[in-house]
UniProtKB/TrEMBL annotation:
It is found in: Endomembrane system. This is DUF202 domain-containing protein. It is a multi-pass membrane protein. Keywords: Membrane, Transmembrane, Transmembrane helix. Residues 6-65 form the DUF202 domain. It comes from Achromobacter insuavis AXX-A. GO terms for cellular component: endomembrane system.
Length: 109
């Protein structure tokens, strides 16, 4: 006899973890946009805006996925959402490294 799946608090914890991840991405992208605006670098502003859009899309996708299937404990991870999160984090890291290198180059002059 099979029993219905009881997900417990796991979906709520997962949603909270994704919420923290997206909040961290948004905060870092605002810092990236601020640095780009202060130093006149439009690439930093564009990268920050792109990360904000990706973080919003990612949060909406994960939230919808967790809310729509509360009884499906064996659901596969959403690869597209994971790739978007990894891409946004990589974009923030690369833009931050590029911005930091530009600041170091300006300080050496």
């Amino acid at each position: 006899m099979s029993y219905p799946c009881d997900p417990g608090l796991q979906p709520e914890r997962t949603l909270l973890a994704w919420r923290r991840t997206c909040l961290g991405l948004v905060v870092n992208s605002f810092l990236l946009m601020r640095g780009g605006a202060l130093h006149g670098e439009p690439a930093g502003i564009g990268a920050g805006l792109l990360v904000i859009v990706l973080a919003g899309w990612l949060y909406a996708r994960v939230r919808t996925r967790l809310r729509c299937a509360p009884g499906d404990c064996a659901s596969s991870p959403d690869r597209l959402a994971l790739m978007a999160a990894a891409g946004a984090a990589l974009l923030v890291c690369l833009a931050g490294a590029w911005h930091g290198a530009a600041l170091l180059h300006a300080a050496v002059r």
